[in-house]
Amino acid sequence: MIRRLLLSFAALAVSPFAAAQPIAIYGDTVWTGTSQGTITDGMVVIDNGRIVSVGPASGGAPSGATEVRAQWVTPGLISAFSRTGLSEVSGVDDANDSGAGSSPFSAALNAADGFNPEATAIAVTRLDGFTRLAVAPEAQSALFGGQGFLADTSGLPGSIFRERVFAFVVLGERGASISGGSRPAAWASLRGAFDDVRFFGARYMTHNEGNVLTRMDAQALMPAVKGDQLILFQASRASDLAAIMDFKEQNPSLRVAIVGADEGWMVAGRLAELDIPVIVDAFSNLPSSFSQLAATSENAMRLSQAGVTVAIVNLDNDSHLARLATQIAGNAVANGMDFDDAMRALTTAPAEIFGMTGLGILAPGARADVVAWDGDPLEVTSAPKAVYIDGDAQPMQSRQTKLRDRYRTLDESQRPMAFKR
Amino acid sequence: MQFGKLCLVAVAALALAACEAPGSRDDEDAGKSPAENPFPSTYKPYPSQTLLIANATVLDGAGARIENGSVLIEGGKIKAVGADVTAPDGAVTLDARGKWVTPGIIDNHSHLGAYPSPGVDAHGDGNEISGPVTAEVWVEHSVWPQDPGFTRALAGGITSLQILPGSANLFGGRGVTLKNVPARTVQAMKFPGAPYTLKMACGENPKRVYGYGRGTTPGGAPYSRMGNVAGYRDAWIKAADYKKQLDKAESGGGDPPKRDLELETLAGVLSGDILVHMHCYRADEMAQILDISNEFGYKVAAFHHAVESYKIADKLAEYGACSSMWADWWGFKMEAYDGIPENIPLVHNAGACAIVHSDSDVGIQRLNQEAAKAWADGKRIGIDVPIEVAWQWLSLNPAKSLGIEKETGSLEPGKMADVVIWSGNPFSSYAKAEKVFIDGAQMFDRNDPALQPVMDFELGHPGEGDRK
C-alpha cells in the first residue's frame, strides 16, 4: 500500500498535469503483454497516471471517463537502444553529444548530461508510439562509452527517470580498433579496467591513472564490475559473443546484455542458458563486415525460439529513427518470429533488460503508458492516434508535422510561407 | 577521331527508335563498335517459359489494379495482362490466388557493387574524391558483381537498379543501369541500351570534402554553396565549348577536339543523351540547379534524396524533374533537417514525378514498405492515392528517370517480363517477394533454395545459403 502510494506520488511528480478524470481507451485489439494476452474488443482504463483496469469493452467505462476509440491498443513502446535526444542533427558536431572522441574520460561519461528532452527527435519518436527510451552514449575515446540512462518521451524537463542504468562497452571490430587495433588489445583493456576497479583503493591511492582507466572512469565503472549495474556490450561475431559469455562465466556476478549480436543465433542456446538478453536489429542480413558473415533476417526469431530475451531496435539510424523498430519487428514476424515475441521485443523485453518496473505492459497498477493505434502497430501503414505517458495525453505535433502543415498547400499568392503557422 | 560525337548521335537515334518499338533495344549494344561503346552490355535474358500467372491481384504499374487478374509471359516479354487472359497451349499456369503481382521494383539510387558488403576500405570504390569534377569516371568500373547486396535486393523484388557514384563531387561521374541478375562481369548485368547517366551533387558534401580538405589539408574549391555553383557553371562552359567543336567537326568544319573523357560525358548531357541525376536536399538549391540547367540547355532527370521537394513540388512539376526520395530519413545532417514523412505523397499530389529510392543496401530490400509508409502518411493528411497508382513510385517513375520506361517499369504487352509475385499486399510489413522474374526468367524463389543465388564471397562462410 505504501509502495503504491509512493508510486502514485512519483507519477504525479513526473506528470504535473495528470488527467483529472479517467480515460477509457477502447481497442478492437488490445495487446497487453501480460497473461491476459490479446483481448478482442478490449478496454483499458487509466486514471491518475496509472492503469486501473484492462479487460473486455463490455465491462463499460467508469462514469465521467473520457472515451477514446482505436483499432489497436498497446503498452507504450520502449526503445531498447538509441541515441535519441543526444543529437539534434547527427552530422553537426556542435549539435551532437553522442560521443566524445577527444575526451580524456570514457566510462565516466554520463550520457544523461547530453540529453535534451526538447530535441525534435523525441517528439518524432513519441508520435510513433515510443514512450520510453534506453539511451546509450557512443564509444569514441575508448571501448568504454560511458553510462546509459532511461527517459520518457514527453519532452518535458525531468523526463530522464533513471541515470547510470548501464555501462556501455564496445567490443568486436569497433572495440578492437578503438583499443589500438586488435581484439587482444580490446580484451587487455577490458580486463585491465576491471583490475583497476577491483584494486581501486591501492591503485589510485597516490595517482589518478590506473592501467587502463583514470580514477574517475574506474569509479564510474565500479557498480558494473561489482554486478550492481548492467553492462551492455556491443558485439556481432559469434566468437565475440562466446568471449563475452566466457567472461561472464569467469565473473558470474556480472549483469550482462548484448547489443548487435548479428551472429547471435549461432550461440543462442548458450545465451539462453546464461540468461543474457540481446538487443538486435532484425534487418541485419548482410555480411556488412567480417563480424557479420552469418547475419540473417531470422536472427531475432532463432534467438527468441531458443529462449533468449530479445529486444528489437533500429541500429542503422539510432538517433532520429529509433521509431522504425516497429517496422523492423514486423519484418521479423514476416521472417518467422512469433507476433507476440516481436511485440515483447518492443515492450516487456526492454523493460526486463533495464529493470523498468510497471512499464511495457497493460496491467492494473502499471504506469499508464498507453498507445492507441489506427492499426496493427507492426504494420508499416499504421500509426498512433493517441499516446499517453503516465496517464497524460501527449501532444501529437512535432517539428515535422509543423513543416508538413505549412507546406500542405503551396499557395503564396497572399503572403510568404513564413507567415503560415 | 570522331567517335565522341558519333557515339552521342548513335545513342540519340537509338533512343528515338526505342520510343517507337518497345523492347527493341536488346541488340543495339551489339551493333556498335568498341570505339563507339567501349563497355557494351553482354546481358542476355536467361531461358524462360511461357507462363500464365493467374488469379492474382495485379498492379500493372501503369495505374491499374486487376482483381483475379492474370499476367501472361511469353518469350521473356509481357504478352497480356487482364482479368480474362487464357493460357496458350504449352503454357505453364501458376495459380497465384491470394498473391499480388507487380512490376519489378526499380531502385534508381543504389551503390551496390561500388560500396559492397563487406564494407571494408579495400571495397570503398564509390567516390573518386580526387577532385570536385570527375565526370570522367564511370561507376561501372567500380562495381563488384559479387556484392551479396545484389541478392538481398533481388529477394526484395528489385529487378533493375541504377548504380551511382557517391556524392562527394560536384560531378561524380557516370552512373550505370543494371538488370539485377547475378553475373561474372558487370557487363553481363548492364541494362541493354539504357542511356548513361551523370551523377552530380549539391550542398554539403562537395563543399565539405574539398573546401575543408576533410579536415586535414587546406583543400580547394568549393568551400561554399556559391563555390559549388561556380564549379558547375565553369564545367558547363567548358563542356559547351567542347560540344561546339564536336558539332563543328561533325558538320565538316575541321578536326574534332582531342578526346577528353570528362568533357565527352558533359557534352553528352548537353546533347540530351546522358541523363542528369542530382543529389540535392534543399529546395532552394534545387531551384538554383533548375536555373543552371536552363542556362546551359540540359535537363535534370531526377533530384535525389530531395528531402525538401515538398516545399517546391509545384516548381518541380512545372519543370518536369523527378524527385527520388526516402520515406522518412531525416536529421542526420543539416540539409536533411527538414525531412518529413509526407514528402513523397506531397510531391505526387502536386503532379510531380515521385520516386522511392534507397541509397542503402538495407532499404533496397523493402522499397515496397518504404512506399507503403509514405502512402499511409499521405492518406492521413487526406492525400488518398490508390495503391495501384502509388506503385508508379517504385517502377514506372524510376524507369522514366532512367530512360528505360519503354522497356520495363510496368506490366504492359511488349515490355520486359520483370515481374514480382508477392505473398500478399506488398504495402505491408508482412508481405514477402516470393518469386522474382527478370525478362521472364525466374531468378528468385523464396521457397526454393535452389533458386536463391549465393555470391562467391559467401561460399565457405557461416552464412552460406542461409535464409537471408
Look up the CATH topology of the largest domain in chain A: TIM Barrel
Return the CATH topology of chain B. Answer: TIM Barrel
Q: Unreliable stretches of chain A, pLDDT < 50, 5 or more residues?
A: 1-19
Q: What portion of residues of chain B belong to β-strands?
A: 15-25%
CATH class term of chain B: Alpha Beta
Give structural attributes:
heterodimer; A: 421 residues; Urease, subunit C, domain 1; TIM Barrel; 2 domains; 15 strands; disordered N terminus; B: 468 residues; alpha/beta; 8-stranded mixed sheet; globular
Write the layout of secondary structure elements.
The complex is a heterodimer of chains A (421) and B (468).
Chain A: H1 2-14, E1 23-31, E2 38-47, E3 50-56, E4 66-75, E5 77-82, H2 120-126, E6 130-135, E7 144-152, E8 160-170, H3 172-178, H4 183-198, H5 200-203, H6 215-226, E9 230-235, H7 238-250, E10 255-260, H8 268-273, E11 278-280, H9 299-305, E12 310-312, H10 325-334, H11 339-344, H12 348-354, E13 370-373, E14 384-389, E15 392-393, H13 399-406
Parallel strand pairs in A: 1-4, 5-6, 8-9, 9-10, 10-11, 11-12
Antiparallel strand pairs in A: 1-2, 2-3, 4-13, 6-7, 7-8, 13-14, 14-15
Helix pairs in contact in A: 3-4, 4-6
Chain B: H1 3-20, E1 51-59, E2 65-74, E3 77-82, E4 92-95, E5 100-103, E6 105-110, H2 149-155, E7 158-163, E8 171-179, E9 197-201, H3 204-211, H4 225-250, H5 261-270, E10 275-280, H6 283-296, E11 300-305, H7 313-319, E12 322-325, H8 343-349, E13 353-356, H9 367-380, H10 387-390, H11 396-402, E14 419-422, E15 433-438, E16 441-445
Parallel strand pairs in B: 1-4, 1-5, 6-7, 9-10, 10-11, 11-12, 12-13
Antiparallel strand pairs in B: 1-2, 2-3, 5-14, 7-8, 8-9, 14-15, 15-16
Q: What does this protein look like?
A:
The complex is a heterodimer of chains A (421) and B (468). Chain A is globular. Chain A has 421 residues and is α/β, with parallel strands linked by helices. Chain A has 2 domains: 2-75 and 369-403, Urease, subunit C, domain 1, CATH 2.30.40; 77-354, Alpha-Beta Barrel (TIM Barrel), CATH 3.20.20.140. Chain A has helices spanning 2-14, 120-126, 172-178, 183-198, 200-203, 215-226, 238-250, 268-273, 299-305, 325-334, 339-344, 348-354, 399-406, and strands at 23-31, 38-47, 50-56, 66-75, 77-82, 130-135, 144-152, 160-170, 230-235, 255-260, 278-280, 310-312, 370-373, 384-389, 392-393. With 468 residues, chain B is of the alpha/beta class. Chain B has a single domain (3-458), classed as Metal-dependent hydrolases (TIM Barrel), CATH 3.20.20. Chain B contains 11 helices and 16 strands. The longest helix of chain B is centred in the middle third of the chain and has 26 residues, at 225-250. Chain B is globular. Chain B starts with a helix and ends in a 23-residue tail after the last strand. Classes of the chains: A alpha/beta (421), B alpha/beta (468). At the A-B interface, helix 2, helix 10 and helix 13 of A face helix 9 of B.
